[in-house]
Amino acid sequence: MNSTAITWIALGTIVPSFLLSWLSAFVIRRRAASWGLVDQPGERKVHEQPTPMGGGLAIWLGVLAPFLLGSILLLSGTAEALLPAGLADHLEGVEMRLGGLWILLAGGTALMILGLLDDLRGLAWQLRLSIQLLIVAACIGSQGWQVSLFMSSGLVTVLVSIFWVVLLINSFNMLDNMDGASAGVAAIAALVLTLFVLLPGSASAGPQLFIAGFLLVLLGSLAGFLLHNRPPARIFMGDAGAYFVGFSIGIASLLATYASAEKPHAVLAPLCVLAIPIYDFVTVIFIRLREGRSPFEADKCHFTHRLVELGMSKGQAVLTIYFATATCGLCALLLPRVDSFAGASIIVLLVVCVLGLVNILETTARRKIHS
Q1: Bridge partners of 51?
Q2: pTM of the entire structure?
Q3: Cα–Cα distance list, 293 to 162, 239, 337 (Å)
Q4: What are phi and psi of 338, to 5 degrees?
Q5: 238 near 200, Cβ under 8 Å?
Q6: Which residues touch 250 (CB under 8 Å, ≥6 apart)?
Q7: What is the rounded end-to-end Cα distance, in angstroms, of the chain?
Q8: pLDDT at 86
Q9: Least crowded by CB within 10 Å, which of 74, 114, 155, 335?
Q10: Does the pLDDT value for residue 25 go beyond 70?
């Protein structure tokens, strides 16, 4: 792919979504109080001032609006005249996948609304989880979106796919515990997954432009929101944003092709890219259950909280998980570039070592807290 095509892809995806998210967040910040979307400080909160929520609406709008405009241009036949020949050749394939795109956006919108209701009223975690499962199962079942497991059992593959997406929805929701944490990690994950499907040497036969385009729009929207969410945050994404972002990344990771018959180990790439949010989710759930509390009860036992207890500033704690996420993501980019199981094992062990370092830091912080 030449530089002109790459420039057009960036201009048509990142820039409009960035601007829409960034500008709409200003409006939402001013209206949040009248909508009842304000997060008050509390014992289990790290912020000290009432902070507007609803940033998820800005992220959602930054993704939805560009795709709505693009779909109108595509179906009206005017998109071809606006693009260089190298990209216009792909429009037929994009049009064939337009239905699936809007199923994805519809599912993400439904989850965003669910999260918004939770932000406004507070829903029982059992109800939230049940609705998440229904929406994800409906999207995956209707479109046949599945993770590649090289298994003969289609039912197992479908169940694993549903579990994977619901896991990411709640992982990004739990990671939204400090300014810039969840949105920043999501942006890094979206960037790494984009590089995976675009760079030469991946497991697929060529660049996966549809997946890359979706992830770049999401990346632009997250970047626009992060200008408001960086420490000290002027707005939070709330459950509405976390549900939408987790679902979007989860489905995009299912749609991408990672592995081939020659390199089946590359199927582990999304697990490496998203190792940090999944690790945070699993360890937090384990701690809560061990202490006899609800697995979805808010507290301050997340990775970022424990880093702050060690003496880091909130900004340093968030940067630490950024670098940990980027390191695991870079390991994922190497998977399709090794030919042997031994090479893939070394890469996976590198990710395990990063998580081991994270665990040491967490354990040290927990001992400091309880001493």
Answers
A1: 39
A2: 0.91
A3: 26, 21, 44
A4: -115, 145
A5: no
A6: 136, 164, 165, 166, 167, 168, 169
A7: 57
A8: 65
A9: 155
A10: yes
